Amino acid sequence: MLTAPPPAAHPLAYIVDRIESGGALLPDTPENVVEVVGILKSYGVVLDAYWRNLIYISEHQFLVLFPFFKYFNGEITTAKLLRHWWHDRINYEFAEYCMKGMFWHGGGGLDAFLDTPEFVNLAKTAIRAKVKSNPLMSGLNQIFPDFLVEQVRQLCYYSGLGQFWRVMSPMFLTLSDRYDRGEIQTIADVVAHVKQGLVDAAALPITYAVNIDGKSYDLLPASAGLTFLPDTALPYVEAVFLRSFPFFGTVSYNAQAHQISANQADFNYGALFADPLPIGGGGIPPTLLMQDMRHFLPDYLHKIYQQGLRGEDDLRVKICLSFQKSMFCVTTAAILGTLPHPLDTTDLAQQQANRAYLEAWVERLSPSRLPRVQE
Protein backbone atom coordinates (compact mmCIF):
# COMPACT_ATOMS: atom_id res chain seq x y z
CA MET A 1 0.00 0.00 0.00
CA LEU A 2 1.39 3.42 -1.02
CA THR A 3 2.26 5.83 1.76
CA ALA A 4 3.44 8.55 -0.64
CA PRO A 5 2.71 9.51 -4.26
CA PRO A 6 4.87 7.84 -6.94
CA PRO A 7 7.74 9.91 -8.35
CA ALA A 8 6.68 12.79 -10.58
CA ALA A 9 6.64 11.88 -14.28
CA HIS A 10 7.14 15.37 -15.73
CA PRO A 11 10.40 16.11 -17.65
CA LEU A 12 11.12 18.72 -14.97
CA ALA A 13 10.09 16.31 -12.22
CA TYR A 14 13.24 17.06 -10.26
CA ILE A 15 11.94 20.59 -9.70
CA VAL A 16 8.64 19.22 -8.38
CA ASP A 17 10.59 16.90 -6.09
CA ARG A 18 12.73 19.80 -4.91
CA ILE A 19 9.69 21.90 -3.99
CA GLU A 20 8.08 18.95 -2.20
CA SER A 21 11.29 18.61 -0.22
CA GLY A 22 11.15 22.22 0.91
CA GLY A 23 13.09 23.80 -1.95
CA ALA A 24 12.12 26.23 -4.68
CA LEU A 25 11.88 26.66 -8.44
CA LEU A 26 15.38 28.14 -8.23
CA PRO A 27 18.26 25.88 -7.13
CA ASP A 28 19.82 26.62 -3.76
CA THR A 29 23.39 27.82 -4.36
CA PRO A 30 25.41 30.51 -2.58
CA GLU A 31 25.63 32.47 -5.85
CA ASN A 32 21.86 32.43 -6.30
CA VAL A 33 21.27 33.57 -2.73
CA VAL A 34 23.56 36.59 -3.15
CA GLU A 35 22.01 37.52 -6.50
CA VAL A 36 18.42 37.17 -5.31
CA VAL A 37 18.83 39.05 -2.04
CA GLY A 38 20.93 41.78 -3.63
CA ILE A 39 18.59 42.41 -6.54
CA LEU A 40 15.53 42.36 -4.28
CA LYS A 41 17.12 45.03 -2.11
CA SER A 42 17.46 47.26 -5.17
CA TYR A 43 13.97 46.32 -6.33
CA GLY A 44 12.55 47.18 -2.92
CA VAL A 45 13.93 50.72 -3.18
CA VAL A 46 12.52 51.14 -6.70
CA LEU A 47 9.13 49.75 -5.68
CA ASP A 48 8.97 52.28 -2.86
CA ALA A 49 9.15 55.04 -5.47
CA TYR A 50 6.75 53.26 -7.81
CA TRP A 51 3.96 52.70 -5.28
CA ARG A 52 4.13 56.25 -3.97
CA ASN A 53 3.69 57.63 -7.48
CA LEU A 54 0.83 55.26 -8.35
CA ILE A 55 -1.02 56.24 -5.20
CA TYR A 56 -0.31 59.92 -5.89
CA ILE A 57 -1.76 59.63 -9.40
CA SER A 58 -4.86 57.79 -8.17
CA GLU A 59 -5.56 60.33 -5.44
CA HIS A 60 -4.32 63.66 -6.86
CA GLN A 61 -4.59 63.25 -10.64
CA PHE A 62 -8.15 61.95 -10.58
CA LEU A 63 -9.68 62.47 -14.04
CA VAL A 64 -6.96 64.88 -15.08
CA LEU A 65 -7.02 63.96 -18.76
CA PHE A 66 -3.65 65.55 -19.55
CA PRO A 67 -1.57 64.95 -16.40
CA PHE A 68 1.68 66.54 -17.58
CA PHE A 69 3.23 66.49 -14.11
CA LYS A 70 1.92 63.18 -12.81
CA TYR A 71 5.44 61.83 -12.21
CA PHE A 72 6.40 64.76 -9.96
CA ASN A 73 4.31 63.69 -6.95
CA GLY A 74 3.14 67.25 -6.42
CA GLU A 75 6.67 68.71 -6.18
CA ILE A 76 7.38 70.73 -9.33
CA THR A 77 10.71 72.55 -9.38
CA THR A 78 13.06 73.68 -12.14
CA ALA A 79 15.76 71.28 -10.98
CA LYS A 80 13.36 68.37 -10.95
CA LEU A 81 12.03 69.32 -14.37
CA LEU A 82 15.58 69.41 -15.80
CA ARG A 83 16.35 65.99 -14.31
CA HIS A 84 13.12 64.71 -15.82
CA TRP A 85 14.04 65.97 -19.30
CA TRP A 86 17.55 64.57 -18.89
CA HIS A 87 16.01 61.25 -17.79
CA ASP A 88 18.00 61.37 -14.55
CA ARG A 89 15.00 60.03 -12.65
CA ILE A 90 12.96 57.00 -11.69
CA ASN A 91 11.18 55.63 -14.76
CA TYR A 92 7.63 55.62 -13.46
CA GLU A 93 6.45 54.58 -16.92
CA PHE A 94 7.32 50.99 -16.03
CA ALA A 95 4.95 51.08 -13.06
CA GLU A 96 2.18 52.17 -15.44
CA TYR A 97 3.17 49.39 -17.84
CA CYS A 98 2.60 46.83 -15.08
CA MET A 99 -0.65 48.52 -14.09
CA LYS A 100 -1.95 48.33 -17.64
CA GLY A 101 -0.99 44.66 -17.78
CA MET A 102 -3.15 43.99 -14.72
CA PHE A 103 -5.93 46.18 -16.08
CA TRP A 104 -6.02 44.37 -19.41
CA HIS A 105 -5.63 40.80 -18.20
CA GLY A 106 -7.94 41.23 -15.21
CA GLY A 107 -8.60 38.41 -12.79
CA GLY A 108 -9.51 38.38 -9.12
CA GLY A 109 -12.14 40.25 -7.19
CA LEU A 110 -10.92 43.72 -8.19
CA ASP A 111 -11.56 43.02 -11.85
CA ALA A 112 -14.96 41.50 -11.08
CA PHE A 113 -16.04 44.40 -8.85
CA LEU A 114 -15.22 46.99 -11.51
CA ASP A 115 -17.88 45.44 -13.76
CA THR A 116 -20.66 45.62 -11.17
CA PRO A 117 -23.51 48.15 -11.15
CA GLU A 118 -22.40 49.15 -7.65
CA PHE A 119 -19.03 50.33 -8.92
CA VAL A 120 -20.55 52.12 -11.93
CA ASN A 121 -22.85 54.05 -9.57
CA LEU A 122 -19.93 54.98 -7.30
CA ALA A 123 -17.83 56.04 -10.28
CA LYS A 124 -20.59 58.17 -11.78
CA THR A 125 -21.18 59.90 -8.45
CA ALA A 126 -17.49 60.84 -8.24
CA ILE A 127 -17.45 61.85 -11.91
CA ARG A 128 -20.40 64.21 -11.47
CA ALA A 129 -18.68 65.85 -8.51
CA LYS A 130 -15.45 66.24 -10.49
CA VAL A 131 -16.92 67.68 -13.72
CA LYS A 132 -19.75 69.82 -12.34
CA SER A 133 -17.71 73.03 -12.65
CA ASN A 134 -15.97 72.04 -15.90
CA PRO A 135 -18.24 72.56 -18.94
CA LEU A 136 -15.83 70.78 -21.31
CA MET A 137 -15.55 67.67 -19.13
CA SER A 138 -19.26 67.76 -18.37
CA GLY A 139 -20.09 67.87 -22.07
CA LEU A 140 -17.65 65.05 -22.78
CA ASN A 141 -19.28 62.96 -20.08
CA GLN A 142 -22.73 63.54 -21.55
CA ILE A 143 -21.67 62.64 -25.09
CA PHE A 144 -19.58 59.63 -24.07
CA PRO A 145 -21.04 58.46 -20.72
CA ASP A 146 -18.79 55.39 -20.50
CA PHE A 147 -15.50 57.13 -21.25
CA LEU A 148 -14.84 58.63 -17.83
CA VAL A 149 -16.13 55.49 -16.08
CA GLU A 150 -13.41 53.55 -17.90
CA GLN A 151 -10.84 56.11 -16.78
CA VAL A 152 -11.97 55.59 -13.19
CA ARG A 153 -11.60 51.82 -13.63
CA GLN A 154 -8.01 52.38 -14.66
CA LEU A 155 -7.41 54.68 -11.70
CA CYS A 156 -8.62 51.86 -9.45
CA TYR A 157 -5.80 49.76 -10.84
CA TYR A 158 -3.33 52.56 -10.18
CA SER A 159 -4.44 52.42 -6.55
CA GLY A 160 -4.65 48.61 -6.37
CA LEU A 161 -1.14 48.05 -7.74
CA GLY A 162 0.18 50.85 -5.54
CA GLN A 163 -1.28 49.16 -2.46
CA PHE A 164 0.21 45.82 -3.54
CA TRP A 165 3.69 47.27 -4.00
CA ARG A 166 3.35 49.20 -0.73
CA VAL A 167 3.46 45.79 0.97
CA MET A 168 6.10 44.20 -1.25
CA SER A 169 8.67 47.00 -1.00
CA PRO A 170 9.34 46.75 2.77
CA MET A 171 9.11 42.98 2.51
CA PHE A 172 12.12 42.94 0.14
CA LEU A 173 14.05 45.54 2.13
CA THR A 174 13.49 43.57 5.34
CA LEU A 175 14.76 40.47 3.53
CA SER A 176 18.01 42.32 2.80
CA ASP A 177 18.30 43.43 6.42
CA ARG A 178 17.84 39.85 7.61
CA TYR A 179 20.48 38.68 5.11
CA ASP A 180 22.92 41.26 6.48
CA ARG A 181 22.28 39.87 9.98
CA GLY A 182 22.94 36.31 8.79
CA GLU A 183 19.32 35.18 9.16
CA ILE A 184 18.86 34.47 5.42
CA GLN A 185 21.32 31.89 4.13
CA THR A 186 19.46 29.73 1.59
CA ILE A 187 16.94 30.09 -1.21
CA ALA A 188 14.46 28.27 1.02
CA ASP A 189 14.95 31.04 3.60
CA VAL A 190 14.16 33.64 0.92
CA VAL A 191 11.00 31.79 -0.11
CA ALA A 192 9.89 31.36 3.49
CA HIS A 193 10.37 35.08 4.14
CA VAL A 194 8.30 36.09 1.11
CA LYS A 195 5.64 33.47 1.78
CA GLN A 196 5.24 34.65 5.38
CA GLY A 197 4.97 38.22 4.17
CA LEU A 198 2.23 37.25 1.71
CA VAL A 199 0.38 35.29 4.38
CA ASP A 200 0.61 38.16 6.87
CA ALA A 201 -0.81 40.60 4.33
CA ALA A 202 -3.29 38.19 2.71
CA ALA A 203 -6.41 39.67 4.28
CA LEU A 204 -5.27 43.31 4.14
CA PRO A 205 -8.23 45.26 2.73
CA ILE A 206 -7.87 46.97 -0.64
CA THR A 207 -9.88 50.19 -0.62
CA TYR A 208 -9.79 53.41 -2.61
CA ALA A 209 -11.49 56.76 -2.18
CA VAL A 210 -10.86 60.12 -3.80
CA ASN A 211 -11.27 63.55 -2.25
CA ILE A 212 -13.16 66.09 -4.39
CA ASP A 213 -13.80 69.58 -3.01
CA GLY A 214 -13.26 68.38 0.54
CA LYS A 215 -15.60 65.40 0.27
CA SER A 216 -14.52 61.75 0.10
CA TYR A 217 -15.99 59.50 -2.59
CA ASP A 218 -15.60 55.73 -2.25
CA LEU A 219 -14.62 53.86 -5.40
CA LEU A 220 -13.36 50.61 -3.85
CA PRO A 221 -15.35 50.56 -0.60
CA ALA A 222 -14.53 48.22 2.28
CA SER A 223 -17.93 46.59 1.70
CA ALA A 224 -16.61 45.18 -1.59
CA GLY A 225 -14.46 42.79 0.47
CA LEU A 226 -11.35 43.16 -1.68
CA THR A 227 -8.16 41.88 -0.07
CA PHE A 228 -4.44 41.83 -0.80
CA LEU A 229 -3.69 38.23 -1.80
CA PRO A 230 -6.57 37.11 -4.06
CA ASP A 231 -7.42 40.49 -5.53
CA THR A 232 -4.03 42.11 -6.17
CA ALA A 233 -1.15 39.66 -5.53
CA LEU A 234 -2.37 36.69 -7.56
CA PRO A 235 -3.68 38.79 -10.48
CA TYR A 236 -0.30 40.56 -10.48
CA VAL A 237 1.56 37.25 -10.78
CA GLU A 238 -0.74 36.20 -13.62
CA ALA A 239 -0.54 39.49 -15.52
CA VAL A 240 3.08 40.55 -14.94
CA PHE A 241 5.04 37.37 -14.23
CA LEU A 242 3.26 35.16 -16.76
CA ARG A 243 1.21 36.92 -19.46
CA SER A 244 2.12 40.61 -19.92
CA PHE A 245 2.39 41.90 -23.53
CA PRO A 246 4.79 41.25 -26.41
CA PHE A 247 7.39 43.98 -26.68
CA PHE A 248 6.92 46.43 -29.53
CA GLY A 249 9.49 45.85 -32.26
CA THR A 250 10.16 42.22 -31.32
CA VAL A 251 7.02 40.71 -32.89
CA SER A 252 4.43 41.99 -35.33
CA TYR A 253 1.16 43.33 -33.95
CA ASN A 254 -0.38 42.92 -37.39
CA ALA A 255 -3.30 40.49 -37.03
CA GLN A 256 -2.55 38.96 -40.45
CA ALA A 257 0.98 38.03 -39.35
CA HIS A 258 -0.40 35.72 -36.63
CA GLN A 259 2.65 36.28 -34.45
CA ILE A 260 0.53 36.99 -31.39
CA SER A 261 -2.05 34.53 -30.10
CA ALA A 262 -5.65 35.63 -30.42
CA ASN A 263 -6.27 33.94 -27.06
CA GLN A 264 -5.33 36.23 -24.18
CA ALA A 265 -4.83 33.23 -21.88
CA ASP A 266 -2.03 31.95 -24.14
CA PHE A 267 0.14 35.04 -23.65
CA ASN A 268 3.55 34.16 -22.24
CA TYR A 269 5.44 37.44 -22.41
CA GLY A 270 5.77 38.00 -18.67
CA ALA A 271 8.86 38.51 -16.54
CA LEU A 272 9.47 34.78 -16.14
CA PHE A 273 9.43 34.24 -19.91
CA ALA A 274 11.26 37.32 -21.21
CA ASP A 275 14.53 36.91 -23.08
CA PRO A 276 17.13 38.94 -21.13
CA LEU A 277 19.22 39.75 -24.21
CA PRO A 278 17.00 42.55 -25.62
CA ILE A 279 17.08 44.25 -22.21
CA GLY A 280 18.89 47.53 -22.72
CA GLY A 281 17.38 48.08 -26.14
CA GLY A 282 15.05 50.96 -26.95
CA GLY A 283 11.35 50.24 -26.66
CA ILE A 284 11.74 47.25 -24.31
CA PRO A 285 9.76 48.17 -21.14
CA PRO A 286 11.78 46.10 -18.62
CA THR A 287 14.82 48.13 -19.67
CA LEU A 288 13.30 50.96 -17.63
CA LEU A 289 13.15 48.78 -14.52
CA MET A 290 16.71 47.49 -14.98
CA GLN A 291 17.91 51.09 -15.44
CA ASP A 292 16.17 52.07 -12.21
CA MET A 293 17.59 49.13 -10.25
CA ARG A 294 21.16 49.74 -11.39
CA HIS A 295 21.21 52.91 -9.27
CA PHE A 296 20.49 51.03 -6.04
CA LEU A 297 22.54 47.84 -6.33
CA PRO A 298 24.26 46.83 -3.08
CA ASP A 299 28.04 46.99 -3.37
CA TYR A 300 28.53 43.24 -3.01
CA LEU A 301 26.27 42.54 -6.01
CA HIS A 302 27.69 45.38 -8.11
CA LYS A 303 31.19 43.99 -7.62
CA ILE A 304 30.06 40.55 -8.82
CA TYR A 305 28.65 42.09 -11.99
CA GLN A 306 31.86 44.07 -12.59
CA GLN A 307 33.90 40.86 -12.47
CA GLY A 308 32.09 39.45 -15.52
CA LEU A 309 33.73 39.27 -18.94
CA ARG A 310 31.98 42.41 -20.20
CA GLY A 311 32.17 44.37 -16.96
CA GLU A 312 29.34 46.88 -16.91
CA ASP A 313 28.73 46.82 -20.68
CA ASP A 314 25.93 44.27 -20.21
CA LEU A 315 24.92 45.39 -16.73
CA ARG A 316 21.20 45.61 -17.51
CA VAL A 317 21.23 42.06 -18.90
CA LYS A 318 22.94 40.78 -15.74
CA ILE A 319 20.41 42.62 -13.59
CA CYS A 320 17.60 41.07 -15.62
CA LEU A 321 19.00 37.57 -15.12
CA SER A 322 19.21 38.12 -11.36
CA PHE A 323 15.76 39.67 -11.32
CA GLN A 324 14.25 36.66 -13.06
CA LYS A 325 15.87 34.38 -10.48
CA SER A 326 14.35 36.45 -7.71
CA MET A 327 10.91 36.35 -9.32
CA PHE A 328 11.07 32.55 -9.48
CA CYS A 329 11.55 32.69 -5.70
CA VAL A 330 8.54 34.99 -5.33
CA THR A 331 6.53 32.70 -7.60
CA THR A 332 7.51 29.72 -5.45
CA ALA A 333 6.21 31.56 -2.39
CA ALA A 334 2.92 32.26 -4.19
CA ILE A 335 2.64 28.61 -5.27
CA LEU A 336 3.30 27.31 -1.76
CA GLY A 337 0.87 29.84 -0.33
CA THR A 338 -1.91 28.55 -2.59
CA LEU A 339 -1.24 24.80 -2.34
CA PRO A 340 -4.47 22.83 -1.88
CA HIS A 341 -3.05 21.25 1.29
CA PRO A 342 -0.08 21.79 3.65
CA LEU A 343 3.22 20.78 2.09
CA ASP A 344 4.02 18.49 5.02
CA THR A 345 0.71 16.60 4.95
CA THR A 346 0.92 12.84 5.46
CA ASP A 347 -2.45 12.13 3.86
CA LEU A 348 -1.89 10.37 0.53
CA ALA A 349 -4.86 11.92 -1.24
CA GLN A 350 -3.74 15.39 -0.14
CA GLN A 351 -0.17 14.66 -1.26
CA GLN A 352 -1.47 13.61 -4.66
CA ALA A 353 -3.51 16.81 -4.94
CA ASN A 354 -0.44 18.87 -4.09
CA ARG A 355 1.61 16.90 -6.62
CA ALA A 356 -0.92 17.58 -9.37
CA TYR A 357 -0.96 21.28 -8.47
CA LEU A 358 2.84 21.54 -8.56
CA GLU A 359 3.11 19.60 -11.80
CA ALA A 360 0.57 21.92 -13.43
CA TRP A 361 2.64 24.94 -12.41
CA VAL A 362 5.91 23.41 -13.62
CA GLU A 363 4.25 22.47 -16.90
CA ARG A 364 3.06 26.03 -17.40
CA LEU A 365 6.52 27.38 -16.60
CA SER A 366 8.45 24.87 -18.72
CA PRO A 367 8.61 27.25 -21.76
CA SER A 368 9.80 30.06 -19.48
CA ARG A 369 13.33 30.75 -18.29
CA LEU A 370 12.85 28.05 -15.65
CA PRO A 371 15.06 25.42 -17.36
CA ARG A 372 17.80 28.00 -17.90
CA VAL A 373 17.99 29.15 -14.28
CA GLN A 374 18.70 25.55 -13.28
CA GLU A 375 22.11 25.76 -14.95
User: How many angstroms separate the termini?
Assistant: 37 Å
Order of adjacent strands in the largest pleated sheet: 1-2
Query: What characterizes the major β-sheet?
Result: 2 strands, antiparallel
Low-confidence stretches: none
Count of distinct strands? 2
Query: Quick one: overall form?
Result: globular
Mean pLDDT: 92
Percent helix:
55-70%
* Count of alpha/pi helices: 15
Question: What value does the Rg take, in angstroms?
Answer: 22 Å
The H-and-E topology, N to C, reads as HHHHHHHHHEEHHHHHH
Beta-strand content = under 5%
Based on helices, strands and strand pairing, what is the structural class? mainly alpha
Task: Report on the architecture of this protein.
- With 375 residues, the chain is mostly helical.
- Helices cover 58% and strands 3% of the residues.
- The protein has 15 helices and two strands.
- It has helices spanning 13-20, 30-60, 78-85, 93-105, 108-113, 117-131, 135-143, 147-180, 187-201, 228-243, 286-294, 299-306, 315-337, 348-365, 370-373; strands at 208-212, 215-220.
- A two-stranded antiparallel ribbon has the order 1-2.
- Helix 8 crosses helix 10 (228-243) and helix 11 (286-294) crosses helix 13.
- The longest helix has 34 residues, at 147-180.
- The mean pLDDT is 92.
